[in-house]
Amino acid sequence: PEALIRYANDSGGKDNITAIVVRVVAADEDEGRRRAAEVKLRLDTLRAVPLFRYLGYKGLVKIHNLVELNTFEADAVVFAEGSRGDAVYVVLDGRLALSKADQRLTDVAPGGHVGELALVEKGPRQITARATEQTRTLVLRREALFEAMGADARLSMKMLWAIVQSTLGRLQVTRAELTAAWRAADQ
Fold first, then answer.
1. Element (H, E) at 138
2. Handedness of CA 89, 93, 99, 105 (dihedral sign)
3. Are 116 and 141 in contact, with CB atoms under 8 Å apart?
């Protein structure tokens, strides 16, 4: 609907514009249940990601409508160390292995995510993410998120707060690790 409203405004719309999009689905009840279960899985998975913890149902649906579903076969590289990052990946099912300089660091299981700093900075990736089995991810691209945040101040505030909280948590972990290393070196 937002794209239709934008098109109407860009085409010279001068009054309030409303758009409604209706999806007609097959009468097959099993297909309807399967689709409903898939949407529920996606929303539940997004809800569990700390980046989206301040969003209510309406905000989660907005994020859900922005994500792309990508499927990676076993051993496929999702993104490589040094590549330019522009998205966060949320594991829907399957598993990702994270490595740096060919040394395995950790795995990301369903409900986990990787790459949230790419939403803040378009710097090079510090790690490689590879599917260890067939893996489906929800991909939220920086550009799509920023466009939605520009159109919705409440969503923007909640997402920025979550990003700050996530970054603060990382800084606290790094500070603790540096303090421990400093103390060990001092002894």
1. strand 135-141
2. positive
3. no
Instruction: Give the integer Cα–Cα distance in Å for 38 and 44.
Output: 10
Contact present, 143 and 85 (Cβ < 8 Å): no
| DSSP-H helix ranges across the chain | 2-10, 29-47, 57-66, 142-151, 153-186
The predicted-structure confidence for 147-166, as pLDDT tens digits, reads as follows 999 999 999 899 888 888 88
Query: Residue 110: which of 90, 131, 127, 89 has the closest Cα?
Result: 90
pTM of the prediction?
0.76
Q: What angle do CA 30, 35, 37 make, to 5 degrees?
A: 95
Would you say the C-alpha torsion 114, 116, 118, 121 has a positive or negative sign?
A: negative
Distance, CA of 167 to chain centre? 15
DSSP 93: E
pLDDT one-digit tens code per residue, 65-76: 999 999 999 999
Tokens 């809800």 appear where? 47
